[in-house]
Design brief:
eight-stranded mixed beta sheet, Rossmann fold, 32% helix, 12 strands, alpha/beta, homodimer, 9 helices, 2 domains
Amino acid sequence: MDQSPPHPETQHQSVTFAEGLTLDCGRHLASLTVAYRTYGTLNAARNNAILICHALTGDQYVAEPNPETGKPGWWDNLVGPGKPVDTENFFVICTNVLGGCMGTTGPRSPHEDHPERPWGTDFPPVTINDMVRAQKLFIGHLGIEKLFAVIGGSMGGMQTLAWAALYPQHVFAAIPVAAAYYHSAQNIAFHEIGRQAIAADPDFHGGQYWEHGVIPARGLAVARMTAHITYVSEEALSRKFGRKLQEAEGLSSLGERFEVESYLQYQGSSFVRRFDANSYLTITRAMDLFDLAAEHGGLLANAFKGTKTRFLLVSFSSDWLFPTAQSRAIARALNHVAANVSFVEIKSDKGHDAFLLDEPDFHRTLRGFLSGCAEHAGLK
Amino acid sequence: MDQSPPHPETQHQSVTFAEGLTLDCGRHLASLTVAYRTYGTLNAARNNAILICHALTGDQYVAEPNPETGKPGWWDNLVGPGKPVDTENFFVICTNVLGGCMGTTGPRSPHEDHPERPWGTDFPPVTINDMVRAQKLFIGHLGIEKLFAVIGGSMGGMQTLAWAALYPQHVFAAIPVAAAYYHSAQNIAFHEIGRQAIAADPDFHGGQYWEHGVIPARGLAVARMTAHITYVSEEALSRKFGRKLQEAEGLSSLGERFEVESYLQYQGSSFVRRFDANSYLTITRAMDLFDLAAEHGGLLANAFKGTKTRFLLVSFSSDWLFPTAQSRAIARALNHVAANVSFVEIKSDKGHDAFLLDEPDFHRTLRGFLSGCAEHAGLK
């Protein structure tokens, strides 16, 4: 496994806010850098902006090749000219989340008191709300008062919900996809496996791996592998790998591998080259802490009282990580406050990852909803 | 975490077979030791014996305190005088599985060519069928021609199915509980996480950890934690831990822990003190290789053609590891060959682990089935 520190020199487009950001934990970041990408053109009225929020291991490279992996943008099938999120009509923005490792302030950034080294595990804990506040600062910097839409899947869906709760006046439409309004005990447990695996890797060095010129690649790979299983359905895993033996050599040795194993090993090892372990710890913790109901006296509906935002909730039938029941509970809370809400469960056997894949029903639904909202917003 | 090698000196009751055992992989073990415990009395006709097959991390201490942990036997609630598996009527046998680490030949046993050191990762791969063949040898040693019943949960259920398929003439009744006739891609993937975590632990030393006076405790703990999540339902995990913070100190640091996390850490660390990492690798691999349909030309029914064995299949409604659909498929195959089969899905929200817990419906069902079979077998 490649042990070299992953491309710390890549330059990302970014803006630095000298005023910094005060976090939910009470700490104040003296300075905040937000890395971002935009697609399409902001209209004169500045009311055609769509913010896309990325998931745990996503980044700002939504609809163009990722400079670090060379792979297509992670929502390239959804965002672009003529695509469901049409960059010929909309100005699409995506920022790397606070705590991330693709240019926005996070554990890999210089420590504010010791700029000669990264924050590492000294980076303060952040919340989904903190991520959204950083995005709000950035939107203001672009001169945008109100977003036409916020869209996000998985943790991006959590941010979308947080936007609608924190800044209802600034979000015309909100589209949480494969989302959850709190992280369940099982969700937390799977994250904890990953964090334990990272902490158990001797190359982690208590989070100060850069001092040793290594990365905790094995632990991070185990973390990624664990997460990956939760992203796919049993059906998808079976279809892709079934019980085929990679080498049909019979029971010759313990080295014999089921295909699913080598796949997971590959997934794990390509991941460690692009993602910072301390960011993984910081962001998984932010997800674990998310509980929009608890923030509002235990009643989710309170988060959306009086909202004028139009909601589209999308879930996928085989998603067992953020199951349909989660989206349904959000729809119920929104109905409770008489919000404008559409809720669609997409039939898919691809699991949580379906939100990233070519799911024609999802894409059609999203295109239609955006088009309807654009009319209501006077955009056409 | 305790790094000392776990009690290698414990003596277990055992029998050694000088003829050894030929394995599915083609290797011949020159000598085979089977460690065991029995409860109750074998009757004069030698037809009241019940073999209990243990699960992945179980052992032969079914109904008495475990000498290594001091905890009650793992099926103490089910097996004993007056209990559903009544040791006043039945002679109950349990052997440590081949490949295990509680006295039966396995990776911790002396290497047959280098007796000065353990087999370690040189131990040949074993199958569920190999485990059953070792048990068959042991049953013969006790002078038992036909078992009244074979009972097992989880991997024990796999062994129970293998007994019925390999030795139909020698099993009057078979009771696979929370069982599966093959290990799914998702099952294999979760095992692979555990194996990767063990292999990634620097204290693993390529499987020769004893040479360094250490055990791969951190990797084994991550493996156990991963497995543990699959043993419980989301409901059970939520009920027990919910999202309560162990220390209600707010967002002060990343060290803050959800209760589920410290629970998993405890589970992981108590486990490493009693279980050998190489046994974990060997036994998980045996489970992954299990596919009773593939062994019989792709048709599960072929495994049971002409069987006279009476079957009771038990599944638990919230078991997502070996779900009810697995037991239903087995019932269908047995129906296909006109076998005598009862199938009960027990309503429980405790997940796969329910087979170990006090589930009155399960216990009543088992007691009734054994009583009926005892009549048919002329035992009363």
